[in-house]
């Protein structure tokens, strides 16, 4: 085979997506840390399936149409570091090949090269021994092979061999992988995508039907509760416009102004030849008619929020408040999970909470929706998880009508401390500096259980062991939650420490938390000890030391 046309490219992409989906649990198991939130496979799958759904909906596609669907779909669906990097690989590849009618080996090689360049640029501090290493090996192989052969089977076979070799070498590049006896999970995910595409190239039949990826409901969390009657705009309306005429900044503003006159919770995101639209309104038909004036519609969804008020009410009330309140100078989006932690963030002034974090990383689109809900000129984002920072950065790049400031908080306690440092009277720049400084002064600890046997940081860990983890890795392993927690505190507290905060989870009885708090007070009489209900899943305790 000398060329790949659009029909085959479509099958190969869907084949890669379905192969990844089938292997996602195996990829999750490759996460080095044996905590119950291993999610690389889940994040990558949800990212690629977001694109695959759009690709599968295109009949008789052109390569340009496929490129837009792959790039736009993966961009909006990107979750976690691995998902964002995967979306950037797709973005670079499709940018290179989108105007071609057919692909030769040299075209694909150029696409691989562009993919790697784009992904490396998206990561502030690229680390070898990861998905990036596997991607680079695949691209290098493609460039060499394209000079020697125009036969795609030989070309692809060479790529698979070198990509797999690079994957097997990742433990030699990252000692933590070698100690745990695993390869990089993100790299394995990318290899599964390539393998799925390769299988199709060799003649494997693929079911082109793509179902939406099921995921936990990402509940919007406003600040209040109420009755169904309080819902002003009853229909949550979403659709994508496949543009057929010019849609610049003027048209985008015109569309937003029109929607503002008939509803709220408005998000209009343009990406080349498509526009993603979200609005709460009592007249979804009018919103759809307006969308039709710009082009054909796809991915239409209308939900009756009065029937779903238990899940939708907080967002609606927040939108109603936004409608009447004057626009603020500065506002906040925070990622949180757990009723107690949510309450703490709200009390500290968070305008909008995204449910997520360890067990479910919000997507780029979730971030965009959240930003759209905050009625402020400058919006601070607190990711509160290192795996969410890239998605936040990707969302920032897509927002034009507000300044987005990302405070790179990696834990919930860091996010809480950062919000405490905010001063309404100070400038955006002053607050960014103060919040970042405060964040950097926080030590964080987490107490949870192991979901698999492994060896890491010189410690042998068995399934169901209790682990105490701080910013430097796993510090304590044992069978008793309190013993492990106190041991973890011992590694975190030093002579300079003044404040210990203990947030207990939804599976931890209050009396156990009180008992732990009293022991901490006895052990560290020079520190103030505060105990709060966090309500977080998975983690018995979250600790912070300042």
Could you explain how this protein is built, in words?
By secondary structure, the protein is α+β, with helices and mostly antiparallel strands. It has helices at 6-22, 24-29, 40-56, 63-77, 80-97, 105-122, 131-148, 152-173, 175-180, 185-201, 249-260, 284-292, 309-324, 339-347, 364-373, 389-398, 412-420, 428-440, 481-492, 510-523, and strands spanning 220-221, 235-243, 263-271, 274-281, 295-304, 328-336, 352-355, 376-382, 403-406, 443-449, 454-456, 459-461, 466-470, 473-478, 499-504, 528-533, 541-545. The protein folds into 4 domains: 6-201, Serine Threonine Protein Phosphatase 5, Tetratricopeptide repeat (Alpha Horseshoe); 220-324, Alpha-Beta Plaits (2-Layer Sandwich), CATH 3.30.70; 326-439, Phosphotransferase system, mannose-type IIA component (Rossmann fold, 3-Layer(aba) Sandwich); 443-545, Hypothetical Protein Tm841, Chain: A,domain 3. Helices cover 49% and strands 19% of the residues. Strand 6 (328-336), helix 14 and strand 7 form a beta-alpha-beta unit. It is globular.
């Amino acid at each position: 085979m000398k060329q790949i046309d659009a029909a085959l490219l479509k099958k190969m992409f869907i084949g890669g997506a379905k192969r990844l989906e089938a292997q996602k649990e195996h990829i999750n198991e490759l996460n080095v840390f044996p905590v119950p939130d291993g999610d690389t496979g889940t994040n990558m799958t949800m990212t690629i399936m977001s694109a695959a759904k759009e690709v599968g909906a295109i009949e008789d596609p052109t390569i340009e149409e496929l490129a837009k669907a792959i790039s736009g779909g993966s961009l909006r669906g990107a979750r976690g570091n691995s998902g964002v990097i995967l979306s950037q690989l797709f973005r670079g590849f499709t940018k290179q090949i989108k105007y071609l009618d057919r692909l030769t080996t040299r075209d694909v090689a150029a696409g691989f090269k562009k993919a790697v360049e784009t992904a490396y640029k998206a990561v502030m501090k690229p680390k070898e021994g990861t998905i990036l290493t596997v991607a680079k090996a695949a691209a290098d192989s493609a460039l060499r092979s394209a000079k020697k052969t125009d036969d795609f089977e030989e070309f692809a076979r060479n790529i698979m061999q070198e990509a797999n070799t690079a994957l097997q070498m990742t433990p030699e590049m990252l000692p933590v992988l070698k100690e745990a006896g695993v390869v990089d999970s993100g790299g394995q995910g990318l290899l599964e995508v390539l393998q799925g595409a390769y299988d199709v190239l060799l003649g494997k039949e693929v079911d082109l039907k793509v179902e939406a990826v099921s995921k936990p409901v990402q509940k919007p969390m406003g600040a209040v509760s109420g009755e169904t009657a309080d819902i002003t705009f009853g229909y949550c309306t979403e659709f994508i416009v496949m543009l057929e005429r010019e849609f610049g900044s003027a048209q985008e503003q015109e569309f937003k102004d029109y929607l503002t006159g008939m509803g709220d919770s408005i998000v209009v995101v343009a990406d080349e030849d498509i526009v993603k639209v979200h609005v709460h309104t009592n007249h979804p038909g009018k919103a759809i008619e307006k969308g039709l004036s710009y082009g054909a519609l796809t991915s239409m969804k209308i939900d009756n929020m009065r029937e779903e008020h238990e899940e939708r009410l907080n967002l609606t009330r927040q939108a109603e408040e936004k409608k009447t309140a004057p626009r603020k100078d500065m506002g906040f989006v925070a990622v949180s999970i757990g009723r107690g932690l949510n309450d703490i963030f709200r009390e500290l002034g968070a305008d909008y909470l995204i449910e997520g974090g360890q067990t479910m990383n919000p997507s780029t689109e979730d971030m965009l929706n959240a930003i759209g809900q905050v009625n402020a000129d400058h919006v601070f984002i607190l990711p509160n998880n290192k795996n969410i920072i890239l998605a936040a950065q990707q969302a920032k790049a897509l927002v034009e009508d507000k300044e987005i400031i990302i405070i790179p908080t990696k834990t919930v306690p860091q996010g809480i401390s950062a919000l405490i440092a905010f001063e309404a009277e100070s400038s955006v720049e002053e607050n960014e500096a103060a919040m970042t400084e405060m964040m950097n002064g926080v030590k964080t600890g987490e107490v949870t259980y192991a979901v698999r046997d492994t060896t890491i940081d010189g410690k042998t860990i068995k399934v169901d062991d209790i682990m105490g983890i701080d910013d430097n890795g796993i510090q304590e392993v044992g069978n008793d939650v309190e013993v492990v927690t106190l041991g973890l505190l011992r590694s975190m507290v030093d002579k300079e420490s003044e404040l210990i905060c203990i947030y207990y989870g939804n599976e931890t009885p209050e009396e156990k938390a009180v008992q732990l708090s009293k022991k901490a007070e006895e052990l560290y009489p020079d520190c103030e000890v505060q105990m709060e209900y966090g309500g977080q899943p998975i983690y018995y305790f979250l600790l912070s030391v300042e």
